[in-house]
Amino acid sequence: MIHNFNAGPSILPKEVFEQASAAILNFNNTGLSILELGHRTSLFQEVVDEALGTARELMKLDSDHEIIFLQGGASTQFFQVPMNLLNEQQTAAYLDGGVWGKKAIKEARLYGHVDVVASSKDRNYTYIPKDYKIPADAAYFHYTTNNTIEGTQMHSIPDSPAPLVADMSSDILSRVMDFNRFALIYAGAQKNIGAAGVNMLVVRKDILGKVDRPLPSMMDYREHIAAGSLLNTPPVFAIYVCMLTLRWLKALGGVPAIEAINNRKAALLYDTLDRLPIFRPTVAREDRSKMNVVFVMDDPALEQEFQALCKANGMVGVKGHRSVGGFRISLYNALPLESVQTLTEMMNEFALKKA
Ligand SMILES: *Cc1c(COP(=O)(O)O)cnc(C)c1O
Prior knowledge:
Strand order of the largest sheet: 2-10-9-8-5-3-4
Structural class: alpha/beta
Strand content: 15-25%
Largest sheet: 7 strands, mixed
CATH class of the largest domain: Alpha Beta
Number of strands: 14
Radius of gyration: 21 Å
Bound molecules: pyridoxal-5'-phosphate
CATH architecture of the largest domain: 3-Layer(aba) Sandwich
Number of domains: 2
Shape: globular
CATH topology of the largest domain: Aspartate Aminotransferase, domain 2
Helix content: 25-40%
CATH superfamily of the largest domain: Type I PLP-dependent aspartate aminotransferase-like (Major domain)
Distance between the termini: 28 Å
Order of helices and strands: EHHEHEHEEEEEEEHHHEEHEEH
Number of helices: 9
C-alpha cells in the first residue's frame, strides 16, 4: 500500500482517479473520450458549470465575486495580479512569508512599487510575521495563506485597509474561511482541488478595470470572466478533474467536514512529533501549517535511516524541500487519516528503537 504525502501535484480522492480514468475511455456514456471532447460542446459546458457552481457553493461566494479557470500555474498569477490591479505609480503591499511570496514580490516589481510590510526571512521563514502596518493607500495587500515549502500557515485573515489578495494554492478549501473578504484569490489546482494545468481565481468585480496599461486579452481577467472561462481552449481534462474533486468534497459535507478531518490529521502528526524528541518541528508552534508539516532530525545518519524506512513502507513524498532539508509531510484534503495513523505508528516504533 502506498501512502502519498507529496507536496504537489499530490494525492486526489481514489474515486476521482477511478472516474477520471473511466472518462478517458468513455465520457458519460457518449462513446467519446474526455480528451477528444470539443470545449464548445454542451457536454463540456456542463462540466465547467458544475465545477464553477460547486466551487462557488463550497466557498459561499456572494454575487460581487466571479470565479474563473486560468492557465499558467500560480506562478503566472505572480505577474498577472499586478498587471491587472497595480498602476505603475501605485504601491502594493506584500507580506514576505516564504519562497512563494518572495517570488510574487519579484514579479510585482515589474509593474509598480512594492512595499514589503514584513518578512520572516530573518529566521528562514519559520514563522508568520505579526506586527506590521498595511498602508491604507496601497492598491492591495498580498499574502500567501499557507507557505507550502516552509510549513507555516496564517490562521486568521489579516485586518487590512487595502483590498486583500491571497495565494491560496496549498490550502484552498481545506478550512472554513470568509472567502468574501478577499478582493482576489488564486490557487493552482494541483494541491487541493484537482490536476495540474489549471488555476482557480476568484475576483471581486469592482477592483478590475482600474489600470492604465493595455492588457493582452489572455492576461485580462475581464475577458476571461466575459467568456465564462472559455476565452480560448481551456485545459479540458484538468477542469474535469477539478469538477470531480469538488463534487467529492461537496458530497463529503463540504469545507466544514474536511476541516474536521484535516484538524485530526494535523493534531495526530504534531502530537507525535512533540512527544518524540528525536524529531524536531521547525516552525513556531502558533504558525504551524495543517497542510504541510516540516520537521528535521538532529542526527543526519538517523534522517537517512528514517528516510529509508519510509521508502520501505510505501511512504512517498516525505523528503523536505531542497531549501529546508529534513522532512515535509503534506496532509492535503484527499490524504486519508489512515495514512497519518500508519506514519505516526512507524515514527513511534522508530523512536522507541533509537531511544
Ligand atoms: C505550488 C505553489 C505555487 C506554484 O504553483 P505553480 O502552479 O507551480 O506555478 C505558488 N504558490 C504556492 C503557495 C504554492 O503552494
